[in-house]
Amino acid sequence: ANADESQRRLFWRGAAGRFHDTHLTPGGATGRTGVLASLESSGDLGRVDALRSLLELTDAIDLARSGEWEAAWEGMVRAGIAPASEEEVPRRAQAFRSLDGSVRGTVDRVLPAAMECLYRRHSELKQRRGGPGAEGATVERRLGELRGAARALVAFAGLIDQRGDLRDVNAKIARMEAYMM
């Protein structure tokens, strides 16, 4: 059953990606499309970005499920649902508010998955801590970067939770961040 589910996910992800590339990418396979022109004339061009973000998130979640923590985290950052650094938090929080509701509506699932990516990658690297010379220094530097990204994610979650809807999510990711210290 799990293999069937995986095949279905791949099929639908591929279909959505092909639709995006064919009909929603300017200069794509068919050039300027009627779908794109219609969205533009109705002021709904942001829906193209929403679909792209949702496709990025789908890929990122699939990568996380397969244990590819670093690539999954990078996908979540590219999708605009997670800040890459602490310096990015205010800008990303502001940008989050202008995202399509279909993307914003994923945050209660994506934020814990994003923190899990950071936590798992941190745990993997921690096992290699104390290696010889440059490798040990590289590992220590990356551990610090992951802790910084976790702090940024917690701060971001706090800034986007205007109504307190994410209280449980915020508590969960804050606990995971604490385990990384």
UniProtKB/TrEMBL annotation:
What's one GO-annotated cellular component? nuclear pore
Q: Which organism is it from?
A: Trieres chinensis (Marine centric diatom)
Per UniProt, subcellular location reads as: Nucleus envelope; Nucleus, Nuclear pore complex
Q: What is this protein called?
A: Nuclear pore protein
The family database entries (PANTHER family) matched by this protein are listed as:
NUCLEAR PORE COMPLEX PROTEIN NUP93, NUCLEAR PORE COMPLEX PROTEIN NUP93 NUCLEOPORIN NUP93 DEAD EYE PROTEIN
Q: Which UniProt keywords apply?
A: Membrane, mRNA transport, Nuclear pore complex, Nucleus, Protein transport, Translocation, Transport
Major site of localization recorded for this protein = nucleus
The protein's matches in Pfam families, at most eight in alphabetical order, are given as: Nic96 (PF04097)
A GO biological process held by the record: protein import into nucleus
Record keyword Acetylation present: no
InterPro entries on file: Nucleoporin_int_Nup93/Nic96 (IPR007231)
GO molecular-function annotation terms?
Answer: structural constituent of nuclear pore
Q: Identify its protein family.
A: Belongs to the nucleoporin interacting component (NIC) family.
